[in-house]
Amino acid sequence: MGIQKKHGKGRLDKWYKLAKEKGYRARAAFKLIQLNKKYGFLEKSKVLLDLCAAPGSWCQVAAEAMPVSSLIVGVDLSPIKPIPRVITFQSDITTDKCRATIRSHFKTWKADTVLHDGAPNVGTAWVQDSFNQAELALQAMKLATEFLAEGGTFVTKVFRSKDYNSLLWVFNQLFTKVEATKPPSSRNVSAEIFVVCQGFKAPKRIDPKFLDPRSVFAELSDPTPNNEAKVFNPEIKKRKRDGYEDGNMTQYKEVPASEFIQTTDPIAILGSLNKLSFDQPPNGDVALAALDKLPETTQEIRDCCKDLRVLGRKEFRNLLKWRLKVREKFGFATKKSVKEAEEEVAEVESMDEELKIAERLQELTDKERLRKKRERRRENEKKQKEIIRMQLHMTAPTEIGLEQSGPNGDNSMFGLKAVDKSGAADKIAKGKMAILKASDSRQDHDSGLGSDGEEESDEEQDRLDRELDSMYEQYQDKKSSIDAKFRAKKARKEHEDGDWEGFTADKEGSDDDEELEEDSDDSSDDETPSKGPLLTDLQGVDNKAGGLSRRAAQFFDQDIFKDIGGIPEEKVESEDELEEGEEEISADLDALEIARQDAPGIEPDSDSDVPEAEEAESSDEEGFEVVKSKANPWDDEPRKDGRLDIDIITAEAMTLAQAIASGSKTTADLIDENFTKHSLKDRDGLPDWFLDDEGKHDKPHRPITAAGAAAIKEKLRALNARPIKKVREAKDRKKFHAAQRLEKLRKKSALLQDEEGMTEKEKASSIMKLMSKAAKKKPKQQVKVVVARGGNRGIAGRPRGVKGKYKIVDARLKKDVRGEKRAAKKRK
Ligand SMILES: C[S@@+](CC[C@H](N)C(=O)[O-])C[C@H]1O[C@@H](n2cnc3c(N)ncnc32)[C@H](O)[C@@H]1O
């Protein structure tokens, strides 16, 4: 590139301005920055070779991103102004001299990264160009194979031409991973694309054919000229920018601008030539001289004519319009002209008409594409934000989808921006968005417009969806590995979904087949996709599979459930006929069934899952109740029948149970009440995270009565009044020791009874003595108080010279306690 001039204001885009702002020598700097953002090769490199480096913006970026003591060598045909921490020299990368100079700089080192951004110097130093771009890239790769370390990265620019696939094939032979990408800063009109080859295989011997342009590009056919007319044809989606013609050693073609005016095929000229010249030939071209002086030949037109290769559609259109105007002026294309001229004019005008239609079409499709792109981006950004929030543990996955977006897509109140002051989210987002943007722009570039693009965007959308789903799964796995509560919740949900077997097998690995079969039988009974806690609770006490749980039995022992009448058998049977959308109703019927079975006069199931021993254990003569502690209501173990042993814990459930028990609700009422928007929800195809979230927040609100709330309150009060585990254990120990002492006494008195040398009176008095001794309380062991001082302070273990029980007290505390006692005495 070196000293290439920029033509037209369009070339001075935001990257150009940004490069100026940041002090980079060329806008190309951003291409490397964006490539590195995606692949991250610079930070990992200690030695880098930049082929075709002038003016040196890639070297600048490398020097910034690589570790401080790295070796960076840059080479170009053009001189490169010195760059701190970078060695540069001027040479042709296709020569042996260049190789030798690189070697002299590298000594024994090998490069971790080789960059190549070379383009033949068309137009300025074209006489030197003996290679086209693809050949230059192959040449760069040849150097890379010599200087790259094993596993190293090679980044090269290539143009989309026929050589492209051959090049890719060669790269694939030498690297483990080859990816072509177009960074956002690379102009869409440019046919350039960057190939990032990672993991250099460093083979001991490379077949010379791989590096010989004649064999690599052997199958090339004749180059097809770039027919710009195709660009305007809406049928053709892809821009034809075939790169430089193959076999054309000089690459460079220019004709006088007058020829463009006179030709009947202007498109062919625009598509195949490099320059329209206004330079006067020695013999003097009159038409050209006149053309040069025309007011229509503006500076912009002249600039456009200087380099046809870099022009976009707009510039081509301007040139064609200019040609028409000039032809009119010169009298080439008027209706009054000779027949051929008429034909030609007609042809040109029809082209103009066509142009207009094509342009209009183009505009419309462009608009539509932009709209779709914007939508896609907005969607992606939203998803990214959610993922970031999850990554930062700022949200539960169930909160996804609840975000309120402001008018500009920003989260107004609970936005990440407001919380993330360090900009961590931004960094993550940028990384991700860079990939997204890159893929977006790649799509645009590759697909042009229309259905191709849409298909690709659909695929992209699918990919993002899949990515989001798998991230959500990962999140759930992670959460369940650290959060017991979450695990239990998940298991409960799986149970509701009929996935209970899986959980049992997972959790209890050793479960035998029989048990698994049992479970699966049960779970097939209730294939309810999702139910609110109320329904689950009631189902938890479902008695269908055999007997009430102990808790359920205790619960329904309450006075309120006395005197419940039975429900006619037929009504309950109708449950079988309920369809899938009526699971909630069936759950309510379960509750009804429970209430019915618990009613007096109805025999409880004999094979209740509460073992007799456990029942007996729950109470003793002293009225001491052994209660299974349950710190967490969700930590329920599944019962043998696969259902959870869950108590009714919500006021809604209690209210419903009471209503059923009191007979104020009939089966018909329950069925009616459950036909809501919730019972007919279509969950097909919705992502898990969405369903989870919806299940949490979008559920029916059940009425609560004062009696129901009071019953739950009372229940909780009773629960809270139970002794804590420690106290229960201490009491148990006491009982156990007493039983042991009694047993001992019994044995001793039995021995005394059998004693032959003693009279009955003596025996009786001995037994009395034993009994009074056993009844005597042992004197409490004195606890020695040791003041933590000097040697005692902070030492773990028994203090020196202290026997028996001891207690370490703090000197300050001791004084304070004494002071308090004194003060209390005084007050008295
Ligand atoms: C696009 S510019 C490189 C820009 C550079 N990456 C930067 O960031 O500043 C392409 C360069 O390739 C160089 N080039 C073309 N053929 C070359 C060759 N055979 N040997 C060395 N350099 C060459 C040109 O001189 C030109 O400076």
How would you sum up this structure, described in words?
- By secondary structure, the chain is α/β, with parallel strands linked by helices.
- Among the domains are: 14-217, Vaccinia Virus protein VP39 (Rossmann fold), CATH 3.40.50.150; 227-239 and 250-337, no CATH class; 784-790 and 800-827, no CATH class.
- Helix 3 links the parallel strand 1 (47-51) and strand 2.
- Helix 14 (339-391) runs parallel beside helix 17 (451-482), helix 19 (500-508) packs antiparallel against helix 20 (513-525) and helix 26 crosses helix 29.
- The structure holds S-adenosylmethionine.
- S-adenosylmethionine (SAM) binds next to helix 3.
Mass-distribution shape: elongated
Fourth CATH level, the homologous superfamily of the domain at 14-217: Vaccinia Virus protein VP39
Estimated structural class: alpha/beta
What is the CATH topology classification name of the domain at 14-217? Rossmann fold
* Average pLDDT number: 70
Largest beta-sheet characterization: 7 strands, mixed
* Strand order in the largest sheet: 3-2-1-4-5-7-6
Strand content: 5-15%
What small molecules are bound in this structure?
S-adenosylmethionine
pLDDT below 50 for ≥5 consecutive residues: which ranges?
A: 1-9, 123-130, 220-250, 334-351, 395-453, 498-547, 565-637
- Total count of helical runs of at least 4 residues: 32
> What is the CATH first-level class name of the domain at 14-217?
Alpha Beta
DSSP summary, beta strand count = 11
CATH architecture of the domain at 14-217: 3-Layer(aba) Sandwich
**Which radius of gyration do the C-alpha atoms yield?**
44 Å
Estimated helix fraction: 40-55%
Distance between the termini: 101 Å
GO molecular function: rRNA (guanine) methyltransferase activity; rRNA (uridine-2'-O-)-methyltransferase activity
Region (Disordered): 436-545, 564-641
Subcellular location: Nucleus, Nucleolus
Keywords: Coiled coil, Methyltransferase, Nucleus, Ribosome biogenesis, rRNA processing, S-adenosyl-L-methionine, Transferase
